[in-house]
Every structure is written in C-alpha cells, then in structure tokens.
Amino acid sequence: MEREGAFVEESELLKYGNAGGFARDLACAQAGDLALLVGPDRRWQILRLEPGQTAQTHRGVLAHDDLIGRPWGSTVLSHMGQPFLLLRPSLHDLILRLRRTTQIVYPKEAGYILLKMNIGPGCRVVEAGTGSGALTAVLAHAVRPNGRVYSYEIRPEMQHLARRNLERLGLADVVEFKERDIAQGFDETGVDAVFLDLPNPWDYLEQAYAALVNGGYLGSLLPTANQVTRLLAALESPKWGLVEVEEILLRPYKAVSARFRPEDRMVAHTGFLIFARALVE
Amino acid sequence: MEREGAFVEESELLKYGNAGGFARDLACAQAGDLALLVGPDRRWQILRLEPGQTAQTHRGVLAHDDLIGRPWGSTVLSHMGQPFLLLRPSLHDLILRLRRTTQIVYPKEAGYILLKMNIGPGCRVVEAGTGSGALTAVLAHAVRPNGRVYSYEIRPEMQHLARRNLERLGLADVVEFKERDIAQGFDETGVDAVFLDLPNPWDYLEQAYAALVNGGYLGSLLPTANQVTRLLAALESPKWGLVEVEEILLRPYKAVSARFRPEDRMVAHTGFLIFARALVE
Amino acid sequence: MEREGAFVEESELLKYGNAGGFARDLACAQAGDLALLVGPDRRWQILRLEPGQTAQTHRGVLAHDDLIGRPWGSTVLSHMGQPFLLLRPSLHDLILRLRRTTQIVYPKEAGYILLKMNIGPGCRVVEAGTGSGALTAVLAHAVRPNGRVYSYEIRPEMQHLARRNLERLGLADVVEFKERDIAQGFDETGVDAVFLDLPNPWDYLEQAYAALVNGGYLGSLLPTANQVTRLLAALESPKWGLVEVEEILLRPYKAVSARFRPEDRMVAHTGFLIFARALVE
Amino acid sequence: MEREGAFVEESELLKYGNAGGFARDLACAQAGDLALLVGPDRRWQILRLEPGQTAQTHRGVLAHDDLIGRPWGSTVLSHMGQPFLLLRPSLHDLILRLRRTTQIVYPKEAGYILLKMNIGPGCRVVEAGTGSGALTAVLAHAVRPNGRVYSYEIRPEMQHLARRNLERLGLADVVEFKERDIAQGFDETGVDAVFLDLPNPWDYLEQAYAALVNGGYLGSLLPTANQVTRLLAALESPKWGLVEVEEILLRPYKAVSARFRPEDRMVAHTGFLIFARALVE
Predict the structure, then answer these.
(1) Fewest beta carbons within 10 Å, which of A17, A54, A153, A266?
(2) Residue B183 neighbours by CB under 8 Å, 6+ apart
(3) pLDDT surpasses 70 at A134
(4) Residue A106: pLDDT band by 50, 70, 90 thresholds?
(5) Ranges A167-176, C14-23, C58-67: which has the least confidence
(6) Which partners does chain B have (≥3 C-beta pairs < 8 Å)?
(7) Burial class (CB within 10 angstroms; exposed 0-12, middle 13-18, buried 19+) of C100
(8) Across the interface, do C107 and D116 touch by the CB < 8 Å criterion?
(9) CATH architecture assigned to B98-278
(10) Rounded to two decimals, what is the model's pTM?
C-alpha cells in the first residue's frame, strides 16, 4: 500500500499482531514524519522530523534526534526539563497551522460541510477560490482515494501556497489546481458539489449551476449578513431549491473534573453557511 | 466500479460528456434508488423507488412510476397538484430518518468528530455501542473503501436494527458488527480511534486503551455534566492526554433575503463531546 | 403607604417583627391578589383571587376560597389530589402571560435594556409603540415612584389593551399613554431615554433626537438583519454615537442535580438590540 | 429634590422648557460629575471632573477644565487633535469599571436577576457576599428610593472597597453593609429576595430560608457545573420550589451597516444562574 498522506500511515507501522491481553506494539516517530509537540501549557507546534534539527519552544529546546524513534504518545523532556507530548498531528491540527495568508474555513464548519453536502470517498467536488488550501485539504482527505477536487483560484501566489500546503499534507494527488477567473466558467460538468469560498458568490451561480449534476449541492461561507441576503436573493430562482442558512458555534469547556465549566471566551463567529441544491427548471 | 452505496452513484449515471456551453445531461431516478421527496412546506420523506408503489404525503399522493425516470432535481406534482422536489438524499438526510430506537449522534457532531479524531479513508475505528447505527454510518462512509469500522453492541435487537440500517444505506461492507459486552475487551488492537457512545464510558477506558494505537484518538458523547465530570476524573491518568470537552451548536436561520434572521427556536443540546489521546506511560 | 402594584405588597403584609430564631410570620394570599398557580408538570397560570370562583387546570379544579387565606408558598391540592404551588407572580411571570396581540419584549432583553439605557427610579422614558404593554410594564416598574413613561401608539385598540394590562398590574399611574402617529414628533423634551419598538425606527430618528436630553439613550429591538443594517445606516450621522448591536440568548438547563444538562430546545431568537447615544453636533 | 446618584440628575439640569420645534436646552458637565470619555478607538474611561486636573489617554491629554461646562454628548479634542466623546456614564458603564478585586456579576446577568427575582422600587433584598459591590450597586439602584439592600461580607477589606464604590456611585444610602459570617444567620426576616454570591451557597440555605418571606426569591450565580449540581441537591427539599438554572449569553455584533456580522470573539461564560422560591413546608 502506498503512503497516501502523513496522517493515515498507522497501519503501515503495525507490522505484528498482538500476542494477547492488553499488550501492544508501539508505532514510533520516524524521520520525515509530521509531528505534533504539545507543551505543559498546551501550546503546540507542528514540525517535520529531520535528523540533526532542533525544535525551539517557550519551555526549552528539543533535538529531533531525541524524537525520532520514540513511540507516538511519549512524553519527552526539553533541555529545561519541561515535558512535551509527541503525537501524530490530525488533519484538524494541520489545518489550524497551515501556512496561510487568508481567513480559513475552520474544522467546526468543514466537518459539517462534508456531511451536509454529502462529500465522501469517490465524490467529484469543485471549489473556488482555493485560498490557503484549508478546505481543499479537508475535501481532498474526504474524497480519497478515487474522488477528485477541482480547485480554482485567480491569484497565482495563493494557489502556489495552497499547492505546497497540500503537498506537505500528502493530499495533492487528488486535487487539480486551476489558476482561472471563474467568471469564464468551470471545466467540469456533472460534479457532485460546488463550494464557493469567495466574497461574491452571487456572481458565479450560473457557472456553478452548469458544473453541477442535477440535484447537486451548492455551498458557500460568508462572514456578513449583507452578503448572505445578497446571495439569498440570487438563489430565489427556479434553478435552486432547499436553500438553507446555518451557523456552527463551537463552545469549548475547561476539561477539569472538579471544576467543569465553559471556557471564559470563545470564537463567536467565522461565517454563515449557505447550502442549496441545483434543480431542473 | 462496484456500487458502494446509494449516495455515490452519480458518476455511474453520467454516461455522456457535455456537448459544450452550460448544457448538461440529466441523471434520472431509477427503480431501487433511495429518493428524497420535499413538499411545499419543507416536510420531507425518504423512500425507495419501487414500480407500482405510491407515496402518501400530507399534500397528496405520488405514484413511484411517475418518479422513476425523472431527472433528479425535478419538481413533481401530487394528485392534489402540490409541487414536490425529487432529490437524491444525502447521508445527512438519511441519518436523520434512520429507523431508530435510541438517541442518535447528530450530523453537527458527527462531522466534527470525523475531523477531530482524524477519521478518513483507510482508518480502522472501533465504536461501542452501535445503537441505531447513525454514527456507524458516518464512520463507515468516511473510512471507505479500504478502512474498517468495528461496531460493538450488547443488545441483539439493537444491532439487528443497525445492521439493517447500514445495509439499506449500502455501507455494511466496511462494518464488522459484534454482539458483545465490551467489559471483556475489544478484539482489535492498534486501531486509529475508539468512540464510546454509551452512558458509562469511564468503565471501559482500559479496554479502549488496549485497542488503540499509541497516540490514538478516544472520543465520547455524553448528555449530562455529571457524566462528563466522571469521565474527566477517569481520564486524569498518565495513560491519557490532550483531554478536551466541546459542544457544537447549530443555529438555523430563515433563508429569506428580505427578512434574514435566526429561526425562533433551535436544538439547544444534544451532548458534550469529549476527546483524548492514548499516551505511552 | 398606598398599594402601588400587585407585586410589591409584601411589606404591607409583614405586620409583626419576628420573635427570634429562624421563625417567621406567614404572608397570606388575599382576595383581589394576583396569584401564580404551578402544577406538578410545571404548567402554570396567573389568576386574580375572587371569592366563589374556581381555577380550571389540566390536573383538576381548585376553588379560590381554598387559596384565599393560605400562606404564599403553600402547596394546595386540586380536586384530583394533584399538588399545586401557590405563589405571588413576579413581574417576569406577569409579562409572559400578558393578554397580547403582538410580539413582546422578553424579560431576558428587558432587564438588559434597563441597565444598558440606565433606566431606574426617577427616569423619564419615551416608548413607541406601546404594543401589548410588556416593555411598558418593565419600564414603569423601574422608574417608579417618581419617574415617568410616555408611551406612544397609533393603533387605538392596541393602546386600550396595553392600558388595561398596566392597570391590572397596578403600574398605570406612572405611564402616560398617547395615541399618536409619532411622525409628528413627541411632546416631551429632555427625556433620559427613547425606546423605538416598531418595525421602521429609522423613520423616527429625528423625532427621537428632539425628545432626548443631550447624551441620552436610544434603544430599539428588531427581528431581522435587514432592519438592523437599515437602522445602522441611519445612525451613521454626527447626531448619534456609541452605536452598539447585541443579542441576548437565554439558555435554560434541566435543574436536576444527578442529571444536570442544558434543555433540549431553546428560544433561539427574539431580536437584535440596538443602542446609541444622542450627541451634540 | 435631593441628588440621589450620579446618573439620575438630568432632571435637575433641565431648568427651562423648550421653546418649540425640535430645539432643546443642553445639559452640561459640571465639576464633581462622573464623566465617560470615549476615544476614537472606542477605548473609554470614567473620571470625576475636577478643576485643574487632566485626563491621560492613549490619544493625548485632555484638561478637565475643557470638559467642565461642555454639553453632554459633545466631541472634545485631545492635545493631539483626537476626538473624544464626553458623556454621562450609565450604571452599566460604572459597574464595568468599578475598582474591584473579585469577579463581578455582569450587566447581562444583573438585569435578568432583577426581573427574575422581581426586584424593584421598595423591595428589601439580602445579598451575600458583597464582593466589590457590582451587584450591590444594581440592587441599590433598582430598589430606590424606599427599598433596602442588606449586604453581608466576611472580609473587611472587601466590604470597605464596596462601600467606597457605592458612595462614589451615590447609592450607599439604601445599603446596609454588614461585616459578618453568614453562617450565624441574617438579621433580617421577611425579605423579598436573597442573593447568594459566594462559592458555597448550599451551606447557607437554612439562613436564607429564615430571612425570606414565604414565597420569596432565592438566587445564586456559580461558575462551575460541580457547584450547580451541589446546590441543586441541597435545594431538593420541601422548603424550596420552582428551581431553575439558566445561562445568559451576550453576543455582540459589529455595528457597521455595510458589513453587519457578529463579533469574532465573545465572553462565553460568566456563570450559571440558579433561582428558587421559598415554600411553606
């Protein structure tokens, strides 16, 4: 089995069955792996393990050579004696730390988008614009191995950044990047879903409709109510149906048994999610 | 490509390329397909299209024979002249209408669970208990084609229901159902994630730990604060780290351009999500 | 001391000091009092106690004569043996059960409006329109005994209803009802606060400005985002400053010690609160 | 009429009626007044105007002598030419800037507490502990002129701070401060409401019950779910009824007409509100 990405290689590493009881083999961090380092204050970073390198943290330095070969889930001490957890990063973690120059679609929205737009293995999905590639990564992860993401972006430097992010995540193989003004339309037809992640989606509804299979899913994420009302007006057409607007709020709690309570502050808004389905007129 | 489920077969149906411009072929509903029927008041039902059958609605009767052969996304009139949308159901829709005898994990939580626990194509996931199979379906959909869901349930009639639900959704092939008291432990080791969807997860942490790969993901969904504090106490152990508690709130809006506003009422609580990672002691 | 309202008469009834320890006299329900009856299923009603009358409930009948003379806080049995709590209603309870033909300002918003607009004893406040009088009642309660509420309403039948509601609550003495189209302006000047509880407040900003003391408070409650953006546009003027938009959400919990959790459903929206202050140009 | 507080003196200042039309007299800032200064970045401070003094801000210096005599609602320039709004502070503003050493009850909760516990002019209310006096101030403001707040606190330095805060706000005349361990009980009986603003209210329910009129209101504000379940257990007694737990969330919006949207971040938790009523056993 070929490695498909940085975050699904556990199976490769488990070469032996367990003898019995609750014992188990220990998968270990290897040179070239992406690693998540979490300090005692819960501050975390993601790094690619490379022999000879060092990781700088607010609680001391760690040598990559001390991390390579360690079982995932181990605690490692910095040169200041501070304990750090060594873990594989999830796609969730990786997205939050993408190199980016734009606002990104957050995991709380991304997971819901997948389910709401029925995106899974084998799906063909159009996305515009690519941005820093956060949603691209979630879509690519979900449609593998035999699906396809077509990601359009008009700004070359942005697409370049996204492409490198996807390569770093091992997800570039199911993505076709297209540097294009989507006013000219999409190349694809009959796609399962189109996600418009740009500030003026109402300008591209014809193009999205042309790309979608009949009954297919349209989605968008917009920060302001003004944009939403404008998109809703454009969707009041016989071409579109089942229009929905929703917001996802994530409320974090202090995970302390003796003092369980919501966190003092939270992210209060990332955007309004708009969904619709392409009808046959 | 073999048909894997009711909701990814669009590609099969698109037999011809598009001639050009914004024209397109129309995929049509066929006998045996699952269909979503949405009435003028947004009330909806899911049915399997069978020649000779009829669908009863509050706004009149529709003959399946009038639906079979129609393009998805069409509007069909009931015998009372009321317009109904004919659409493919999404996994999201299907889950909300599963035959069930238990509380289910809702899409707003399910999508987030996937991202947070890094569940995607190729993953091996343990779930207990199976319940009505809603989360089982989301997990199965996400790990296809080469992943695996091991779903444990102690109540035979429940597992029977879930098995039928998964078969109906075309997702049973990646699921292994096990009728078992998980106090005895799980058969699997080195799995990527364990989700404990039962009222007393603190009783099964040892078993979950034994099943997980080192660094693997534990998740649970609990309705009351009392349960959360009890689980948090049990997770205060060197075996577990990065413990988090979160809540997902979905706020629906009235999707009307001229009067955009939140809906009057919303679901205020389904449960608290708890996540942790298995450490090496 | 004259009785000023149904809900502040406790002091009248406490005629004797306590002898000592934790003993106390018991204030009793009297003919003419407003009473709150709460059944075993938490369903409640408000009634005025009148000798010879009966209260019909889903759990049986209670004779007013069995309630009159009972201490507040007593449990009384219906003819079916079901226990009912006999309590004085709060202004909060009374507002929720006002006779009404309009949407009302809810207590969660009303309490915040008082603090945000600095409304307390002695204040002079203009309100338009009166509606069913729910906010009028809260304002009147707060400005007593020497403040004043000027409540404008163009629909005579509405003002008639509100007037009767306020009389029933014993709060009419600090309210001046005016049946008027406020396009003509308000009679008052130098008032501390103006609350515009009508669908098009942007049409009356000049009138509100003229009525307010310099630096005074403007408030409004609007259900849709479209209305809010329109009001915000009108407030982008040197006459107004410190413009704020806020929303108050009330999340109810199941008050059960062993199963503490949020309620399943909640009111998700009543309206957006908009506040501003009148500046000197 | 005697001045009762810093924030209801508008009526004093309006010595002349308006000549007609929309003209009006301008109430002016005077030496000794509390003033709210709001800078161009919305940062604000509260100060007492004193001849010869200066106000330091991040955008330059303002001389109090330039503020005294100006109409409220005026724009004043700092020595750097930056515009500042000169306004009377509301009780809401004053509370948020109280000198404090403790967590305070926020206006979003305080306003709701007033309505829920039926606290208005003429009420007698017991509070423990006093803390920095924020809730004391709201209660005092609401019960004036003929009500009474009895505020208990065991820490002398805390009560000293609260007393000075209340004096500064001109509200001390309706408050009786008592330095006392409330385990010994309250001096008052037959009070309308008792608010327990301390971490272990379950230890003082007997004392609260003894102080309350029959049917009276108990309230508390607790940060953690653990405290709430403990208080709920103690309230499961025939002495208490209509127990409710609620949470108030304040969602702020960007007040910009062309880009109306919720703020990015918000306060996610201050505490759970618990209410109950004293029954007759």
Answers:
(1) A17
(2) B203, B204, B207
(3) yes
(4) confident
(5) C14-23
(6) A, C, D
(7) middle
(8) yes
(9) 3-Layer(aba) Sandwich (3.40)
(10) 0.90
